[in-house]
User: Fold these one by one.
Assistant:
Number 1:
Amino acid sequence: MHTYYRSTDHIAALIILPMFIDVQKYKPLIEKEVSKATGRTFTIGDEIKLSLFPLAILSFNNLHLGNPPGFEEKDFVSIKQFDARVKLFAFLLSRFKEIKVKRFIIEEPRIVMETQKDGRNSLDGIVKAGETKPKAEQKPKEGKPAKSLPIQTFTVDEFAITNGTIILIDHSKGDRKEISAINLKLDDLSLDQPISIFFSALVEKYPFSLEGSAGPLGKDLNSIGKGTMHIDLSFTALNHLKMDMKGNIIDPATDPRFDLTFNTPSFSPRKMMSSINQPFPVKTTDPKAFEKVGLSFHVNGDKTNVSISDGLMLIDDSNLTFTASAGEFSKPKIAFDVNLDGIDLDRYMPEKEKIKPKGEKEKKAKPQAAKKKKTDYAPLRKLELDGKVKIGNLKVSNVKIQNINVKISGRNGIFKIHSATLAMYDGSLAATSVLNVTQERPKTDIQLKVDSIQIAPLIKDLLNKEYIEGTTHANISLGMVGDDPKIIKKTLNGDGELLFKDGAIIGIDLLGMVSNVESAFSVSLEDEQQPKTEFTELRAPFTITNGVLNTSGTILKSPVLQTVTTGKANLPKETLDFTVEPRFVATSVDKAKTAEAEDEEKKKVTEIKVPVLITGTFSDPKFRPDLRKILQNAIEDELFESKEFKKIFKKEELKLLEDTTKDLIRGILKKK
């Protein structure tokens, strides 16, 4: 009984006291105490209202909390109007289990966070130095459950922040950012029902908004973050980009799981950037690239696994479908399946710089080569990977490729491309590869097989040059160490064979070179028709040892000529050193010709063959006759076949020295 009377006395006091207390009288005292506590100016307008019946009401206007002395902005926080109304009777009669807010409105709040050059900022002094730290939260003793809050119901009929502003100023960087026209409205705010949300703002005068619903948050304050929360939100930026998110978030506070769908309808990134008077961040060859972009996917998962399905990305005329999953994040397991119908990557590449005429050189200070940071492969050693990639049509560097299929896997630092196949220029290419990152420097092995690719249009599209024609076949095996191009060239090892059939070498007339010294090496660059060396077969076996390519028998066959090329190409230095040895072959003989005439023709051709030296660099190869070889052949032919030479070694006692003498002479001629 006494408890009942005490409660009613307290309620009566709460109702009556505000009727007799003049709040305005205490306004100067409130301002003084807040100023003293914060060390900065604090003022409230004259319209202060405090009431506890029939609603608990607190309202005021023109609140100003100043910045510390010496700051550019006068106010740290200002509020034009504040109005909060709570149903106090419902709270009391429910024995403190129900909080029902009629309205909570903040009009034109303004917060300025200013940082000085010396590091001082607007928050300094809000909490006084030397103030005692709050005691660490004590854990409930074993056997005794933690006390739960008595509040079971929390509702707000009207919650709004209108026309707010946040300003961030950093004098050390000369930077000022402003978020203005902030509006937040929550309708039907309660714990056990979805909350209607509307938010909008201007970030540096550019519009952003969020609209939709989310909830319920929980049955009561003790169960917030437990159960299923439905999400249906739409985010809009700059009046162009829109993203919708729908689905469920389950037990976010205890055992978070999610099942969500994201959808970004197609929009124009270029128009979006143009609307804010900003240049497009990527310079592309095609000024119409990125006119249309869209994205949608479904994602679900928990703390240990994430899965993406029904993925669709739209980029202009290209459609990419994808699925992916990731799990065991400490030792990630990643799988993906990507399918692209087609894309012209050249549209999205930076525009090529125009080559300046010779003699017109732009003087630029040579930048100092930055020391390359060592790559850490430890994360890759933990990764488990399984993936598939399919591309219908691909254009890159003007090269056209079709039907690309790649399967990749990785375990314990070893990644394998099990099969990579593609079609191009009437032929196909197949590859397998292994990347090993178990050691400090990565090791790579590649196997390539080329079948029936037309080489001429490929080189024409890739380099806009004409080097060689024909159907290409190849088997190549390569191994390399490192991740720097210079190191890779020096550690490149392998072997293989290139085979070109029924084609021609463009720009070189080998038949003319080996037949006529005077005319073959003085071809005019202004000739209307490019010189060429036609062949039925060009076979080039090679080995590569530490970046040096060697061939001991590259053979070119044509109806009247066969050449054997030996020598090497130094890949790190990009230099050439080859010798082309001509060997004329028998041709079909005109039946009208006599045997004597045919022999005479063969003899004539054989007498005028000229070896060719190929030197210089990859970018500037040089071709010249091997004069030493010509001289050697001429001396050998004339000296060894002369009557005088034969007469000397006709004698029985000198016959045994003939071969030794020939070898000695040949050795002298070969010396450089």
Number 2:
Amino acid sequence: MLKSHSNLLQPRPSDRVRIGDCVVDIPLREIAPAEGGEPVRITLKALGVLLALVAHAGKPVSREALFEWVWPDTLPTDDVLTQAVTQLRKAFGDDRERPRYIETIAKQGYRLVAPVAWVLDEASEDPLAEAQPVGAAATQSRSGRQARLVTGAVALAALVAGGAWWSQRSEPAVTAPPLAIAAPATSRVMASFVRIASLPQSEEWPSLSPDGALVVYSRAAADGASLVLQTASATAPRALTTPRAGQKDLMPAWSPDGQRIAFSRVVDGHCRIMLVPASGGPAQELGECLADDAHPVSWYPDGRALVGAQRPGGASKSVERALHRMALDEGRWRRIEYVRSPSDEDMSPVVSPDGRWIAFHRNLSIADVWRMPAEGGMPERLTDLRTNLYGLAWARDSRHLVFARYREGRIYLNRLDTVSGRIVEAVAGNDNMMYPAMARTGDAIAFEVESTQSRMRRVALGDGEGAMAGSRRLFDSSGSNLMPAIAPDGHQILFYSSRTGDQRLWWLDQRDPDSLRSFEGFVPVPRYPAMWNPRSGTALVIGTQRGEPYGIYEIDPARGRVTRLPVPDRQPVHVSWHPDPNRLLVVADRGEGRLGLTLYDRSLSPWRSLARLSDVASTVVDAPRGRIVMSTPASPEIRSADLALGDVRPVDAVGLPRRARSMVATADGVRVLDSDPDCRWRWRPVGGEGAPAVCLGGEEWFLEGVTLDPASDALYVSVVEDMQGDIGMLPLSAFDAPPVDGGAVVGASH
């Protein structure tokens, strides 16, 4: 049976599907007779079973597959599935002995035998109007532009965000090829914006009053951060909060009635959700944050509750990284009941103005926009971008979403039509536009305009606590320089830089400063440093050239060659050399933003998968100890496996999940550039094995990448030293400008 969740196809054509003589309302979990009558509400698990059967209508679905899809990472009894099927039969009015809907297949499972068709016309009062039969590969026109493609079996919402589906030491089961979202072309428009706040202090996280006339945001100071309020134009602001030294008031969210503003207050390493009158006055504590650091919140339209989620990399309080709801009169976060996998990292939730939906980002570096009913239930994926996303906001029509995404070295604002799936991207200047906020009843968009400067530094480990402060800059330029990768020979270095105005891969032999050159036409993904092979001859980099899909390329600097490798994975994220030169370790997207590791034998064509692991973000080969050390996507845990990906076990945890990216192989084992309460930059062994930890200083920089030159006992790091945030404004109508560049943009994910 299928084990890759290819039953979970997206997007669905509508929220209703006709099965036999009944109509199923998916968000409401109700089954009603088509000719009218009292609907019957079913459980979330029963709906999951039903949608799995719909996805394979007319074909048997095994009980094992249903358990895997609907009850992942649990050990359910046979009774739970039997009860779910019984509930469905009762709701349909079905007879088990003479089934018209669900047939029991002896020793196999169940089969949906009733005809299935989507109810496509949302505007019609007739529940059978414009029904699209399942299995038809056709495009239905809905009010001209409102078209969606239905291919293969059916387009369904995400049913189960599964757990560990992949074998760790055996060949993966043969499965049907995964069907991706049909992604409409992305248009690009030119837009101009106005900076309404541009003082030297960093200004972040704007929120608009319901009518768009006022904006509140957080302004940094030397000893903390406060909330300030001003009109939505370039005028002088006034302080809304006056925190004490060391206190940070962050991420404000204006209430639907315009009377109050919710925000996060961080003091002495603890975070609380606060409420302050928009007219000014003392702030009231509502309850604790979901983590020890700040996270954004969004209001429900009735003004009685907030929705929130931890930010990636936050200091968790052992709270599940899922969406939570806090009723104001209760002051306590409660997890929203919806379908997700433990490895999913959901963040930035926002409630639509009509109160029907919650939109959110799922996962971090290969994220997409999702939505689900406001009361919980079954999420559906709205985009197929697989990139970093920064903020999310609903338009007043509850149909359009504005979000920020990373693409080719910059962050752009995008508008998504949740009905047609079409995306329009706004390009304005060379700044990053992120964390949008929209007026509830107006057309205004406020957002953060961020300018950062990334630099590379050489850090001498022998300098101890003065190492970071005494480090020297490398190959400085007016652009950002990041992710250095030193070859084992100690001379060659590869890094990414925007010094030419676009993101490129650069190479230099440090013995000859005039050797600096870039690989023109190749666009790297600056997520991880390049991976040199042990002989220093070539390196592996993820990127693209000549419009090809993003993949893994072998770089030969001496000859200037860039060769695409025939990696079977559609969306690779990280790659490492294996001690066996015929093998490679590839981390890639396994669907719905979940990452997994594959050990490939590349001596065969096509490449053969030797072993697979789920929930892996990056790998480091610890050759002296004969092991692979792995970070996880959404937790601080570090695991190890043998060179065949067997004997998997936890070995360590990093202070922040993103610091797992700073793992480096050394002759003394794997080390990580981590932090703890006593030291911001601590160079320590993973698992406590090897030489003692060393504190390298306390500079307030943000780490992006690190590599080790063993010959000189020095680290080469890239850090964000300068970060400036302003507040910008533009109207939603800016996205209606005529498209540029022919109207189509390559929506490649990064």
Number 3:
Amino acid sequence: MRARCLVALVAGLVLALTFPPTHAFWLLPFAVAAFFVVTDGLPVRSAWVPGLVFGAAFQFTLLWWLHVVGDVPWLALSATQTVWYGLLGAAVVPLRRLRWSPLWLAVAWVAMESLRCTWPAGGMPWGRLAYAVVGTPVAGSLPYIGSTGVSLVLALSGTLLASAYTRRGRARLLPAGVLVAVLCVASLPTFAPYTANPTGHVTVAAVQGNVPGSGTDVLAHYREITQQHSAETVRLGADVRAGRTPRPDFVVWPENSTAIDPFSDPQMTSDINTAVSAIGVPLLAGVIVDDGPKHVLNQGVVFNPVTGAGDRYTKWHPVPFGEYIPWRWLFGDRLAQLNQIPRDMVRGTRVTPINVAGVPVADAICFDVAYDDGIYTQVAHGGRLMVVQTSNAMFIHTDQIDQQFAISRLRALETHRYVVVAAINGITGIIAPDGTVVTSTPVRTESFAESRVSLYAAVTPAVRIGAWSGRACLGLVVVAWLLGLAQYRRTRRAFAVSAPDEPAEVPVQGPSDRTPV
């Protein structure tokens, strides 16, 4: 068991390295394969141990950027995510007895990812296998099969590699051959990428106003931040009038560009009005809006130069223990850190895109971009362009910045939409539907990214499939687990009947004795 746990520890660390900024993607199948090798041949009562070690090495390393918020949030979230890998190690034991076990194991991995993306307290999608594929040959599959489908392909590559490793002689050839075929098929869209005809074009500008000081504390400088976004928008307007920059159809400010309610603060209202008047086009600003004494809203609000505040989107996935306190009735006032969040952020439910300058825009605020549901829903309901408004200031010196921007690039591929990212101090940029970065601004600067982009109405197969691929994996795992358990019981009954006539010593079935692939 010690050797298994050591290998699990190394494999978990390796899997973390396959994500940006290191992005050693080619190691991913080997890391997944190692997980299934070290949990192989163990009973349920002990298979969870190396799985847990693997998960700890992976999640505690991948989520290290969270330590800037505090050790407790980093430890708590990482530990919660780690548990899922321990459960997976135990849950796949019955599946190994089935024919085509590598497929069942891969489905189980994706089912686990789907569960941890939603539970507990809304889940945490960071570390899905698909989030490592941007810029790789597999990325072209995203508009066809989506993030869940790509995770399944990557998990299957690992389980097939594990199957080839654990078998002997010619038995290795079949899983190895299937592995090559799977990777070839997954890479085909790179040579025949998804395409669609644009329905129109607009020019968009994303403003990055920056955060004073160390760049990490938004609340300490909230008025200066709004003023800097306003001043940068005024500069953009001056460039437009001077002919140095094309006039945008609309402008995007990031999340927390106003960190208090602009509808109740005259100075905030004035700063926004100054910016809108200077540019003369609608402004989609990220604002915090009061919602009574106990709640707040994190919104993207459209400010029109003629009609004022209009359409708005509310963040779908507030951060638990960061923007709201789940089970507040349980914790009460016993944890001092929770007193820093006196009001809970209310979850948004809007399913249609917002209207910005006549353009149906699918909005995502910060960590919304890591969840499938809100994005798929808005695009399916007619969103022709995607916007990500984010305030990553507290993480500006960590790997989180690169990881989240990579997820934004993935969404561009998956939805076949241009994605406009407005970050409070980085990374702000505009991403094409093929995942390439059209333009971006340096981090920690007052600047803007501007480009003419195409609008698309076609809905990709990935968006049409939506959450059904994850649900299918969950259903299949339950069925397969029951089949595996039934087979195990039949084997035990057969052994019990034949035991009196058999020698006392019974050979143990090893990995090479199972039906290959």
